[in-house]
Amino acid sequence: MDAKWSWQTDMSRAAIPFARRVFIIAAVVAALGLFWQIAVTGFGIPPYIVPRPLAVLDAFAHGWWRIARHAGFTLSAAALGLLSSTIFASVIAIGFSLKPTLEQASMPLVLIFRSTPVAAVAPIMTLIIGRGIGTSIAVVTIIAFFPILVNLTRGIAATDPNAAELLHVYGATPLQQMRFVRLRFALPYLFTGLRIAGSSALLGAMLSEWITGSEGLGKMILDDSEMRETELLWATVLTSVVLGLCIFWSTSAVEHRLLRWKA
């Protein structure tokens, strides 16, 4: 009985901050919607440029199935690209830590690779891979790779020297030190890179869709603009904004759950 009461008490305590956060978000959204309506009405902005909030909501209500279908393509490309970039960046960052000379030799190539305009790379990826989700995944991988690599490399280098020295005294190999100490200390840096790369991944997927004409929110925005469906255009843009925020919040939530040991 005491355990059940304690569990219910913990759940109720956890629900209070969540309810407060939801209320704050709802209040901010309502305030932005009111400001939007006042600005459009006060400045007399034509509906074909900036529609009223209620018109955008009506367009979303009637076209939500289409937005959801295209959002699924964009999120799939962003998630797979983010996963592949995380894997590649982790392998390279570990290699940089184990072999510092490898970092000195490879970092200029990484910087050149990072400086290449994505708008120039996407058509090349289209020729190699073809039009479809594969090109979007490749573009997202290119965009998200650099911030994850830089933050993870810095995190591995920021390991507590006392902890690393302790494992060295006990005869741990470099790989064991990497597994049990360095990667654990690098996790906050990894999540920092993921938060930066998450929003960029969504934008990269949409950019690829604009260029290649494949399915996704990017193509939908382009089509709505050409068809002068302003209300649906704004609904799609706002959906992409909400998805970007959800990626950021989800990454922060996973970080908070995995890094409780640092509290």
Instruction: Compute the number of structural domains.
Output: 1
Multimeric state of these chains? single chain
Helix content class? over 70%
Task: Note the total helix count.
Answer: 9
Instruction: Report the biggest beta sheet as strand number plus sense, adding barrel if it closes.
Output: none
Write down the overall mean pLDDT: 82
- Which class of secondary structure composition applies to the elements? mainly alpha
Q: Beta fraction of the residues?
A: under 5%
> In angstroms, what is the radius of gyration?
23 Å
Q: How do the SSEs run, as a string of H and E?
A: HHHHHHHHH
* Known CATH architecture: Orthogonal Bundle
The CATH class assignment is: Mainly Alpha
Q: And the CATH topology?
A: MetI-like fold
Choose one word for the global shape.
globular
- Report how far the terminal alpha carbons are from each other: 30 Å
How do the helices and strands line up, and which of them pair or pack?
Layout: H1 2-43, H2 53-98, H3 100-115, H4 118-129, H5 133-157, H6 161-169, H7 174-212, H8 217-226, H9 230-258
Helix pairs in contact: 2-3, 2-5, 2-7, 2-8, 2-9, 3-5, 4-5, 4-7, 5-7, 6-7, 7-8, 7-9, 8-9
Task: Describe, in plain words, how this protein is organized in 3D.
There is one protein chain. The chain is built from 9 helices and no strands. It has helices at residues 2-43, 53-98, 100-115, 118-129, 133-157, 161-169, 174-212, 217-226, 230-258. The longest helix has 46 residues, at 53-98. The chain is globular, with a radius of gyration of 23 Å. The chain starts with a helix and ends in a 5-residue tail after the last helix.
